[in-house]
Amino acid sequence: MFNPSRDQVRQFFFEAWRKQRDREVLAGPDNVAVGARASTGNRRIMRFSFQDIVMRFHGSANYISTDDLTLAVNAAVTLQRPLLIKGEPGTGKTMLAEEVAKALKLPIFEWHIKSTTKAQQGLYEYDAVSRLRDSQLGDPRVHDINNYIVKGTLWEAFNADEPVVLLIDEVDKADIEFPNDLLRELDRMEFYVYETHELVKAKHRPIVFITSNNEKELPDAFLRRCFFHYIRFPDKETMERIVNVHFPGIKKHLLREALEVFFEVREVPGLKKKPSTSELLDWLKLLLADDIPPEALRSKDQKTIIPPLHGALLKNEQDVHLFERLIFMSRHNR
Hints:
Blueprint: H1 6-20, E1 25-27, E2 44-46, H2 50-53, H3 67-79, E3 83-87, H4 93-104, E4 108-112, H5 119-123, E5 124-126, H6 128-137, E6 149-151, H7 153-158, E7 165-169, H8 183-188, E8 190-193, E9 198-201, E10 207-212, H9 220-224, E11 227-231, H10 236-246, H11 252-266, H12 277-289, H13 317-332
Parallel strand pairs: 3-10, 3-11, 4-7, 7-10
Antiparallel strand pairs: 1-2, 5-6, 8-9
Helix pairs in contact: 1-3
């Protein structure tokens, strides 16, 4: 696992600053986003400073960010490329975008992808059915086609008057062609509205987060336009920090026993679905609500061979039976 030192992090951003140092970035008086073109003849020159380039995200009170994840977020911001986040379900991919938006005090636009989602829906949709109905009813709105253009999440983000965070969540749920259909839009931050003959350009380039559960392979052309990071499953030390953020008053003995049981469950060979961070937090919430003592997590009673409230960790009957058998065998072989 790549774990950069503070000096490596600073060196990365210093090199980015050095390369940009002498490059003049032109921006209009009402549009000072990095890389924006001047909208009027009256232009002014912006220069990068190291203070502008240095990392801006360091985690938050509600999100434990490892050094390599923090580096990935800020590298994507510096390069102005979408950050493609992969990892097991429940490792905080979606929450990362939300916490970055809070930390940087930026609005967030969220586009949650389903199996039926089309790329066009993120741009806009033309409601021809409503226009036909209104024409039959003699509605005067029918004469303005703009009344029937439904703006999508990308349009809203592009049209924002300030920089924003744009989350495209679970991109791998959609059809395989979905990522390819967004290549130009994510690369140039613009798209064309054919019904109104309008070119929509982003006023400010958004900070784009794209999450994937690795259910489908993503096209190479799409990957080339992204900065990639895989969120590794937290080790015990990091997991303890995560738990303490959500349950600051939890007893150390209970936390220690719960983490031991949790990682034992994850290490069971043959599990269809390993419990995730979010499921651990759900389980701990139930243990605290029912005031379950730490000793109950390792009961020697054959009738309670499986941890209490295990339904928060194991989500199908095959995994439950497998875990029961392995624990039973391990205890009888001692």
